[in-house]
Design brief:
The complex is a heterodimer of chains A (147) and B (288).
Chain A: E1 5-10, E2 15-28, E3 31-36, E4 42-55, E5 67-78, E6 82-86, E7 89-91, H1 97-113, H2 119-139, H3 143-146
Parallel strand pairs in A: 1-6
Antiparallel strand pairs in A: 1-2, 2-3, 2-4, 4-5, 5-6, 5-7
Helix pairs in contact in A: 1-2
Chain B: H1 2-61, E1 79-84, H2 94-108, E2 114-118, H3 120-128, E3 133-137, H4 146-162, E4 167-177, E5 180-189, E6 207-209, H5 212-287
Parallel strand pairs in B: 1-2, 1-4, 2-3
Antiparallel strand pairs in B: 4-5
Helix pairs in contact in B: 1-5, 4-5
Chain lengths: 147, 288
């Protein structure tokens, strides 16, 4: 039995997850990073990507023990407990595939058809696409499992 | 004479009764809205405070905060006031309290303020008095989304970073209970680091990724967004509470008025009757 650590995942509208975990894997701006109990104190920014959570006592040694969620950027604050703040988070089972696909199509359409783009708008559309891709991956159980 | 005053009183009773109906209905409506707003507020309040607290803790515990976000590193000249009011009236002293406080703050300042108005009431007031409104948000505050606050706070942060403004003050109404609200003003930027003895200064090294500046350049705007969002949600709750109170008072006053009016009416009617009896009696006496 490995040590566990308290994890809280918070969005502006709700507490998305709260509980003890063995490990949580998040994509920081520099790449995937796993956080376990006793991690050195840190404050890192997260990319738009998947969040993998291994809850305490659920570990059987295979990939299905992990819960996967899509997060839309944010930061992780590691102290004696781990706090992840994100603007939006969704569990894989809650993702509405149709909406994701239509949003992605809309953003792509917009990027390819219009000619004069404001750099801010382009960045926004790119973020929208990144979010959609993350959601699609998460809905299918995460990019890692697909491989 | 007596009949005309009776008619007058009757007419007044009628108009006060219909006003009472309206205020009573408005009271019920705002009570319902208050319940809804309070639920949202309570749900988001905990999270947002938690987040704001986490961020504040990071600020307080770290000595690596970029200097330009800290108090005391530049002279405060231009201040940006974010004033949260409502879009509708009939809510007692709600808007005037906010505006009074905001105006007091603004007048203390020599420099020309930059005003960001949330809600039409504050905007109209300051516009009429010749202040420049930098930006506004005029949709009903209870329906504001987090995304919208983000759009709103971005230019403020940019202005702060470019040095156009040196201070950001948020003035809003904070919710204490359904019967009590309080005007609060909070300085969002620059950040005042309080060396709270309760928060232990962290001796441990903290890893920042990608870099200290990047982390704080993300956290500081986030903190501002979060505070604005929570202030708007809180103020919407207060607005409904204040309106419910105002409407309740109006209904009570109307009822009181009706009571005294019906007393006058009865008196007038009685005196009319008495007059008539006296006339009849006097008439029959004269016949004898």
């Amino acid at each position: 039995m490995s040590r566990t650590v308290k994890l809280e995942v918070i969005t502006p509208s709700k507490v998305f997850f709260r509980g003890r975990v063995e490990m949580v894997i998040a994509r920081t701006l520099e790449g995937d990073e796993g956080f376990m109990a006793g991690h050195s104190w840190a404050c890192k920014l997260l990319d738009i990507n998947e969040l993998w959570i291994l809850e305490a006592g659920k570990s059987q040694g295979n990939e299905d023990d992990w819960r996967v969620a899509a997060v839309a950027g944010g930061f992780v604050d590691v102290k004696d407990s781990i706090v992840i703040y994100t603007d939006a988070a969704e569990w894989s089972e809650d993702i509405d595939m149709e909406r994701v696909l239509s949003e992605k199509a809309k953003a792509e359409d917009w990027l390819t058809t219009e000619t004069e783009h404001d750099p801010n708008e382009i960045a926004k559309a790119k973020i929208a696409i990144a979010k959609s891709i993350t959601r699609m991956n998460v809905a299918e159980g995460g990019a890692r499992r697909k491989r | 004479m007596a009949t005309s005053s009776m008619q007058d009183i009757k007419r007044r009773i009628k108009s006060v009764t219909s006003t009472e109906h309206i205020t009573n209905a408005m009271k019920l409506v705002s009570a319902g809205k208050l319940r809804k707003a309070k639920a949202t507020f309570e749900k988001s309040h905990e999270n947002i405070h938690f987040i704001a607290h986490t961020i504040a803790e990071i600020f307080n515990s770290s000595s690596d905060v970029p200097q330009h976000y800290l108090a005391g590193n530049r002279e405060i000249k231009t201040t940006c006031y974010i004033i949260v009011t409502s879009c509708k009236g009939l809510c007692g002293g709600f808007n005037s309290n906010i505006i009074k406080e905001a105006e007091r703050e603004i007048l203390e300042d020599w420099e020309k303020p930059v005003i960001v108005a949330i809600g039409t009431k504050g905007k109209e007031y300051f516009e009429k008095r010749g202040y420049d409104i930098y930006s506004d948000y005029l949709a009903p505050p209870e329906s504001i989304s987090f995304l919208e606050t983000r759009e709103m706070s971005r230019p403020i942060i940019e202005m702060y970073n470019s040095g156009e403004i040196d201070e950001v003050v948020l003035i809003y109404t904070s919710f204490i209970s359904s019967l009590e609200q309080e005007v609060k003003n909070v300085t969002l930027l620059p950040f005042e680091i309080e060396h709270d003895p309760e928060i232990m200064r962290l001796e441990k090294m903290v890893e920042y990724e990608p870099s200290v500046e990047d982390v704080f350049n993300y956290l500081v705007p986030k903190y501002v967004e979060m505070m604005i969002y929570s202030a708007v949600v809180e103020s919407a709750t207060c607005e409904h509470a204040a309106r419910r109170m105002a409407m309740e008072n109006a209904t009570d006053n109307a009822r009181e008025m009706l009571d005294s009016l019906s007393l006058y009416y009865n008196r007038a009617r009685q005196s009319a009757i008495t007059d008539e009896i006296i006339e009849i009696v006097a008439g029959s006496e004269a016949q004898k």
